[in-house]
Structures are given as C-alpha cells and as structure tokens.
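yo, Cytochrome b561 domain-containing protein is done. seq:
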Amino acid sequence: MSGGEVPFVVVVFTCLVCTGIMANFTIVLPLSVYWSGAMLADAGIISSYAIGAIISLTFWVRYDSSSIKLCYLNHAFMVIIGNVLFAFTPSIDQWWYSWLARFVLGLEGGAMYNANLALISLSNPANRVKYLAYYQSFVGLGLVLGPAISATTTALALGFTSHPHSLRTILAAVFMGLWGFFLFIALIFYMPDDASIRETVGHSDSKGIPLDNTSSQSDTDEIVKENNWSYLDKAYVLLLAFLGNFMRIFQRLAWEVSAIVLLAQYFNWGAIAAGYSLAIFGILQTVAQYFYGEARKSLQSGTLKDSVKDLRRFETLEIIAIAALFSKTNASHNWRDFFNITFILASLLFYLASCLTSAPLNDLILFRSTRAGLYEKNVHAHKKTLLAMQYGIFVAFFAAPIAARAVLHIGGLNTTSLAGLLVLGWALQTTTNSITIGRIGSRRPVVIAFIITLFMIWSSFDKSLGGTGPKNLFTYHPVAMTIAFYALMTPGHLVYRDDAAFLTTGDFSLLFSNPTPENDDKGIDKSDRRKAHLIYLSLATFFAVVGYFFIFAAHAQSGESQIGQAETSSRSAHVALGYICLLWLAIQATTGSFKFNALSTGLPPVFTWHGLSGKYLLLFAYITSCLGFWLRMNYSNQGAWNIGIKFALTGGAISLFAYRAFPNSMHPPAGIDQDPIPEDVIDRPSAHGQGDTSTNLA
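structure:
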C-alpha cells in the first residue's frame, strides 16, 4: 500500500474499539435514572468506569504501533469480562458491586489512546487529517450507540415484564458483552498480524519506523536541544494538554449526565425518550464535526490563526447557549413550555459548540508540543502529549458525573443548577484556552464584566432565583458593588491597553472585531486615556460608596453589627475584606487624583505605584465578591441564591481574575501568526493541514 494509507481492516477494527468504549461508558446514563434515586450514589457508579480507565492507561501505554492486534484483543477480552460482571448487578443489588463491575469494565477504556496512536503512526502527514476525522466520527458513533442501546433495552424490558428495572440492565450488559465477544472472534480471524500491517504500510521494524524516514531519536533530541526547552517547560505544555482536554470533556459530560435526568424527570419525557434524544445529539455532533473538518481542510491555511479564531467563536457560542439555559423555576405553565423548548435548542447549540472546540484547541496544544520538542519523529506522534490528553479526558469522565449530580442534588432538579455549573466550567475552560493561545485581549474581560453586572441585577431583583427583591435594602448592596468593581473598575483598568480603543472613544462596535495590529488604537493620546480612566474610576468610587450605604442601612434596619460581630466566620470574613477594599479604594482615589493633576499640569509623576496597586485592588475585590456570592443574602438569614446562580457569578469572577492576574499580550506568541511557519517548528501540528495532527480525541 502506498501513499501513507492505513489498511482498511485496521480502520474498521479501530472504529469498533473506539465506538465500543464510548458506548460502554454512555450506556449507563439512561439506566441511571432508574437506580437508587440518590444522585451522588448513582454518579459514583457512573464515574467508577473512569477510575478503571485512568488506571488502565499505565498498562495500555506499553502497547505501541507494533502491537495493534494484541492490544485490540485484550480490549475485547476486558469488554466481555466487564459486561459479564455488570449483568449480575440487578441480582446482587449492592452499590459496591455495581461500582466494582463498572470499574473492571473501565479497564478497557485506555485502549482509546492506542486507537488514536495507531491511526497516527500508520498514516503519513498528508493523509492524517482524514483518519483523525474518522476517529472523531468513531467517538461520535459511541455517543450515539450507548444511549440508543440503553433506551432500546428499556423499551424491550417494558414489553416483557411489569418490573423492567433488572431486565433492562441485563439486556444492555448482554448486548455489549456480545459486542466484545464477536469483536474478539473477528480480530482472531480477520485482523492481520502486526508484522503484516507494518509491511503493508512500509514500516521496516517492530518500532514502527517508516522506511522513508531517515531520522532517528537523535533528531528529536536535537530539536529539544535547539529549542532549549527545559523539562519544566515541557511539563507546562503537558499540563495545558491535560487541563484543556479535561475542561472540554467535563463540559460535555456534565451536560449529558444532567440532561438525561432533566429530560426524563424534570420535563417528564421518561428514560426512553431521553436516551434517544442523547443519541440524536451524538449524531448531530458527528455531522457537525465532519462539515467543520471539510471547511477547515478547504482553507489550506499555513498558520494557526484560523484555529485561534474558531476556538474563540465556539467559546462565544457556548456561553450564549449556556445563558439561555437559565430559567425561572416558578414560571407559569405557558412560560414553562417556552423554557422547555429553549432548553432543547440551547442545549443543542452548547453541545455542538463544545464538541467543535476539540480540533482547534488540540491544534494549538500540539503546536506548543512540537516547539517544546515533544514530537517524536520516529513514530510520527506526540506520544507524551497524547497521553496527557487522554488522562485529562478520563479524569473528566470521573469528575463530571459527580459534579453534575451533586449540583442537581443541592440546587434542585432544574436547568438553572446545570447552567450555573456550565458557566463555571466555561470560565475555567476559556481561561485555560487563553493561556494555551498566549493571548488575552481586552474585549473579552469587558464583555464578561458587563454580563456579570446584568446577571447580578437580574438575580438580585428576581425572588424566584433566590434574590431579595426590590423592596429589600440589602438588594442594592451587591448590585452597586458589582457595578463599581465589575462594570466600571474592570474596564477602567484596561483603558491604557492598545486594544481598548472602545473604552476611550466610546466606539463599542470594536467589541465585535478581532484584535489585530490594524485596529489597535496606539494613536490615541495618552492624556485621553487618562481622562477616561479618571471617569471610570470616579464612577466606580461613587457606586462603591452607594453600595456601602445600603449595606449599612440594611444592617441598621435588622439590628446587625456593622463590623461582623456575632456572625458566621464566612460573613465576618466578607465584612473584613469589604472594609479593606473600601479603604484601599479611598487610597487609590486620593493618590489617583493627585497623580492626574500632576501629569495634567506637566509636573513630574507622583505615586508611581498607583497603577500596580490598582491592579491588585481589583483582584482583591474579585476575591471579596466571590465570598459574598456564597453567603445567605438577606438580613433575616433565610434563603439564598440557587447554587446555579452562585456558580455562574463565581465562574465569571474566576475568569476575570485569571485574565488580570496572568501576564498576557494582545497578540499570539511567535509562530501562531507567522507565515510561513518558523524554521524551528517541524511538521506543523495542524488539525486540518499538513503535519502531525493528533487532535481529535473524545
């Protein structure tokens, strides 16, 4: 075979392996609706698969591209054993046994790493995009198959008995057990041995080194030496690979695990309809991945700018969709129907956008991996980076079900609880992505700050969300403080940045443009920036004083201490931090006015530490507000925001803290915006162009 094509039989069996792994994990989502009813206990059973998968990577990683058949045979054997054990869970009916059976089944999961590695190592860079597109389709098939099997076995069980709870689990386990059995038999008779596979694709030895590749491990060592990246630098890239894939999978699974319960119970669809709904979502994301891949492939771009732009677009679509998931829990019947429809449409947009972040994100991660010398030319792959990605995916398999079910358990079975968790996840995800890109512009923090402010106003005035309402004096304290530190001080601190023209000129249309050298506002006089800064911070100081007035009045009305005496430790801490913020703000306002007057009159600058102090004041205010978000809000100490509201506000604050705390620049680091690619970058890792492209995992 020529042209770097992977043998068709290997593609077929890789498809069966990947699809089976994802089906084995997702098949329990509809089934979990009928389990104990204890959210956390059920989540533990779902997550136990991930523990097995995480542990299994330690031995699956020992198989390389020269042991494909043996690896797949062992995978099929583990599928059989795990599902045989799981089939007995209804008769044993013990939580610990269900956990153990799913854990053993999870030991097959690590083969996902080998499946991805097989496609990468057996294809050449020119054809690799096609096979990685296949890989993502295989994952999508598993997302479809698992819930569909579960829904079908539930329907069959209902037709055979009036007590279908045991039968539906047995049928699902039997189906997947037979899947593993027939896969094992097919591998024995139809999968060629590894020597034949290597000979077919032109690999010369058991290490998988291509015949036409004259490089050796010393070449990789030389790349590391030339780039002069330390082990700490490489560890940092691997950490980004882990965190980036953890967060994107966490978001998807948190929605899936929550949506199956919400659709079945909150919207009264039942487990069968909910299971088929998840299958439809899986089909649509597979189709979306295909068309996105085709669109990117047609660009034939030589830079990574398209990946940066696409990643930002998908992040924006995600947060828009998440915002639409918030709803009023006490809505009338007519409005409830509206929120039901909105949930489906917003969920679809969120799910597709979340899935599509995979390719551009890992494209950027592998770019950094190559520059760090982690690309192994002798096997045409980033093995260490792939492994870090896979660990991130499996840790998300473990964490997402527990976090999602815990939020529904604490916050109640409603869409707002889920939406809040997704906002928090989105904040952490977009922060990690920004660090990976190496660029954090001014537009995103400003938009997030405005959204937090609007959200605070809504949630404070709306009692159905846990707010105290417009008649309560306390209501105006968090509203005024959020306006002060988020809507005013955050943009006020950014006015001196080159990409913040809209904050000085008032041209907010630039919020929707990409920051480029062409639309930088370096020509704006610094005195104009200084005036804008003075206006923003003066207004911020005014609203902070107003906010303090209302909390003082609310405490006086309720007879509570103004300094946090005889209060809970968390409330006392918030009071103490709040007074520090106000004192710090007073110092900043005073020194800032003196500095402005000095610079305006041509005198030497004074209080040169004012700018740096303002940055840390803003970070301190974010921390103080986060603590306040989690307090009971009214003076009678009864009631509080839904946990989803708290997560949403906290997530926004975390993202702003990260944007302002981490060093950042307006433009990407060298290489991402360069064309052609710098000479020190070999085999550019693009998900949709030439070079190594191990990007689309789960």
